Task: inverse folding
């Protein structure tokens, strides 16, 4: 599937510390306000607004309900291979995210892609709608950040993300990445991370998506993210994001 749709509903204020965006994503705020904090300060995106964010980004996010109802937003996430295939202009120095002007072209492209997902279009047809959306975002001013060479941590993240519940070992991951375990650990250390840190981040990022975008019980989400103990999962989630998973349920 070239794109995933996540709907977020919040009936009370949500604060998420360093929320991860694993894929290139475009978010449409439909009710309430999304507030983003980074080293440049705070930015509010009101209902009707859009913003785009590149992969492997961490943003401090607040979702503020409207005066007359819950906060609502829809996020369309596009895998790296899909947006790279469009051969859009890339800039290694581009900002990791930006607010997009609510142009008619962008609004129509977003609605077109979302409707294609809802209608379960054939994947070949859906790819054309995703291409339209990515082009509209690029015309609105967003530039893709592209590293000259994919980092080991990113390659590992993509591998682990396919099976977050698996009982991963560094030896297994290294074998699938066609390197020795020692080489993998050395490269990760050079990037100031570790196998255990990447695995934990992948599992908790997946958990955040399920907590916000599904009605699955938290116990089941914990299991699907590789945590045998729901209480341990809740503790790790709160430590990572600054709030317990139960606080983010719509």
Result:
């Amino acid at each position: 599937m070239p794109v995933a749709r996540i709907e977020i509903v919040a009936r009370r204020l949500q604060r998420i510390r360093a929320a991860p965006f694993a894929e290139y994503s475009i978010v449409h705020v439909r009710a309430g306000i999304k507030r983003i904090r980074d080293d440049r300060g705070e930015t509010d995106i009101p209902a009707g607004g859009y913003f785009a964010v590149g992969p492997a980004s961490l943003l401090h996010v607040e979702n503020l309900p409207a005066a007359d109802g819950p906060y609502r937003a829809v996020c369309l996430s596009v895998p790296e291979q899909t947006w790279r295939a469009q051969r859009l202009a890339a800039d290694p120095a581009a900002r990791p995210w930006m607010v997009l002007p609510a142009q008619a072209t962008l609004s129509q492209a977003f609605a077109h892609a979302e409707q294609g997902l809802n209608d379960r279009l054939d994947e070949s047809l859906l790819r054309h709608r995703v291409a339209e959306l990515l082009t509209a975002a690029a015309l609105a001013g967003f530039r893709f950040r592209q590293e000259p060479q994919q980092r080991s941590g990113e390659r590992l993240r993509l591998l682990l993300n396919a099976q977050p519940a698996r009982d991963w070992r560094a030896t297994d991951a290294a074998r699938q990445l066609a390197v020795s375990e020692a080489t993998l650990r050395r490269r990760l250390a050079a990037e100031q991370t570790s196998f255990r840190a990447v695995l934990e981040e992948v599992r908790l990022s997946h958990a955040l998506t399920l907590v916000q975008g599904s009605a699955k019980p938290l116990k089941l989400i914990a299991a699907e993210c590789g945590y045998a103990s729901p209480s341990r999962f809740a503790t790790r989630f709160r430590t990572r994001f600054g709030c317990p998973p139960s606080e983010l349920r719509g």
Notes: Residues 36 and 61 are 5 Å apart (CA to CA).
